[in-house]
Amino acid sequence: MASAPPTKRQKSSKDVPYELLYWPGIPGRGEHIRLALEEGGATYTDTAVIQGGINSVLAQIDPKSLGDEHNPPTCAPPILKHGDLVINQTPNILLYLGPKLSLVPSIEEDEDGIYHVNQLALTALDGLSNEPHDCHHPIASGLYYEDQKVEAKRKSEDYTKNRLPKFLGFFERVLKGEASKGGEWLYGGRLTYADLVLWQCVDGLKWMFPNAMAKLEKSGEYDGIWAHYERVKGRERIKAYLGSERRQKYGMGIYRHYPELDEEA
Amino acid sequence: MASAPPTKRQKSSKDVPYELLYWPGIPGRGEHIRLALEEGGATYTDTAVIQGGINSVLAQIDPKSLGDEHNPPTCAPPILKHGDLVINQTPNILLYLGPKLSLVPSIEEDEDGIYHVNQLALTALDGLSNEPHDCHHPIASGLYYEDQKVEAKRKSEDYTKNRLPKFLGFFERVLKGEASKGGEWLYGGRLTYADLVLWQCVDGLKWMFPNAMAKLEKSGEYDGIWAHYERVKGRERIKAYLGSERRQKYGMGIYRHYPELDEEA
User: Fold this and answer.
1) How far is B48 from chain A (nearest CA, A)?
2) ipTM summary value
3) What is the chain B residue with the closest CA to A83?
4) Cβ contact A116–B71 (<8 Å)
């Protein structure tokens, strides 16, 4: 895309910092975008740490908004503004940032690599982010947890017993496969944004289901995943970010720690 | 991508038909891929209509598979093979096919158009395909519907009352917004694969929740959606496809018609 011809939208409108619009107070789905921006060394603003930033989020998802001349309305955050471009949907924002922040193989190196990275990110988000969210909200995202506790317990039991091992096992195989080129990273022998997505998911799950995750760790069946987790965490920029005030604590977001939903110790 | 330089993978390996790998017997998530291939006039094979085709699907998602030198393993169908490329995840396959089948604006016309199309497809799949699936399987995809009927009824009530109107209202606004360039199609004044995704979702929902959808139609609040539905259905190639034997009937897939989950007539 770097070599794309001039277009109707001025290139110069992109020589500006990225703007992340996300709810303050929780890492949430916005965290996948933050990790990409941090690892990519990007200059960005974040409504989560701007006084009154929540108003920008609310304006953008106003149920009367029709978007503008260039951009359709956006349904939910995270939202990325870059110049006059406004996009949302976590995997879509990552897809946009990937080539710009060198978090995917270049087209010259690997013409279709971005589709593999995108599919791995989508799979992690499906099984290790959306499903954990539904564990505490299986009936309705608009109801309180307390109004669906019984169903949440049933869903969480199935999740930790069947779904979580299935998805961890899948990514263990991705690391073991030849296309990982060595087993350190998910694809192509180098860090991509799919690695950052998997890391954030595993980190959230360790917080949400500490007992279930500890048992899976003890099983020895997913050793590639835990090594990968430490490898991402040890990246210079990621380490600096995680130690900074920009990294928010888990709370009432995607990953929630309700001890009654976890397995027995 | 058409002007990408030569890569390590031979271009000539792509001068072959697309191969869709999906479960036989239901439209399912594979239908989004079929509609794109049909509207794009592509030559393709489909395991759903090949004797023993299911074995290709099972081999590809074998829980011991490590993928191959080029391709990571795939977690679930739909899967697309194109030459030696193997990818999965519905929105990812559509992203790959979009430029090849002229189902997205070209980079020359609209540098970032593909991100808008991708975000609209992802939003439709989230709210109008994944959530309806969870209406009949809110607790565990591995359990029978009969084992989660009470929870399914509760979730479906919330879905038809709150979530379905929210997402239809969102797409109504997308059509009304300036970026649709006229309100006939979701983005940029021309059909993209996001229109096909929305169409398939609305079609499935009409079958799954006929009463709830009829009420929403009578409300007059979503007239753009119904006109869009007829517009897609009337496309020459789509019309021919829907009248052919290649279009499978709904059954025990994403969209299921359990009258007890629908609203009263």
Assistant:
1) 22
2) 0.95
3) B112
4) yes
Looking at the DSSP bridge assignments, the partners of residue B214 are none
Q: What is the mean pLDDT of residues B134-147?
A: 96
CA distance B7 to A110: 7
Q: How many whole angstroms separate alpha carbon A167 and alpha carbon A144?
A: 27
Cα A90 to chain centroid, rounded: 7
3-state secondary structure of A88: strand
Hey, are the CB atoms on A72 and B167 less than 8 Å from each other? no
Long-range CB pairs of B141-148 (<8 Å, 24+ gap) are B142/A158, B142/A162, B143/A158, B145/B256, B145/B258
Alpha-helical runs (H) found in chain B: 30-39, 53-60, 90-100, 113-125, 131-136, 149-158, 164-176, 193-208, 210-218, 223-233, 236-242
Q: Which residues of B touch A107 (CB under 8 A)?
A: 1, 4-5, 7
Stretch B182-195: mean pLDDT: 98
d(CA A234, CA A241): 11
B contacts of A116 (beta carbons < 8 Å): 71-72, 87
Is pLDDT above 90 for B211?
A: yes
How close does chain A come to B109, measured CA to CA in Å? 7
For the entire predicted model, the pTM comes to: 0.95
CA nearest neighbour of A78 among A100, A95, A66, A64: A95
